[in-house]
């Protein structure tokens, strides 16, 4: 009986993880438009041809809380909080490494 309960519990947790992952991926896709808009309107130093790589790296290195900030901005509009969130993620070493890799990859193609 305990074994059956344990198996059912493990299966339920695995399903929850998959659903959580799907929700997170959907939110990240939705947040890309907000990050792109923020970069285009509030970060003039980012060259237009690099906005997509910047957006991808920012989304890839954002936490769930930061993704929620972008989702909120998709509804109410980009504000100073959105800009600060993007700036924070851009300042991370992981984001810088991602950008460097994407820029080098685009330079060789």
Automatic annotation (TrEMBL):
Protein name: Succinate dehydrogenase
Taxonomic path: Bacteria, Pseudomonadati, Pseudomonadota, Alphaproteobacteria, Rhodobacterales
């Amino acid at each position: 009986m305990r074994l059956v309960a344990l198996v059912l519990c493990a299966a339920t947790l695995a399903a929850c993880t998959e659903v959580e992952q799907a929700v997170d991926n959907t939110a990240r896709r939705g947040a890309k438009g907000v990050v792109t808009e923020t970069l285009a309107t509030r970060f003039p130093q980012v060259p237009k041809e690099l906005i997509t790589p910047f957006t991808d790296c920012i989304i890839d290195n954002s936490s769930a809380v930061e993704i929620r900030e972008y989702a909120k901005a998709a509804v109410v509009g980009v504000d100073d909080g959105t800009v600060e969130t993007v700036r924070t993620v851009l300042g991370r070493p992981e984001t810088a490494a991602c950008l460097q890799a994407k820029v080098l990859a685009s330079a060789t193609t």
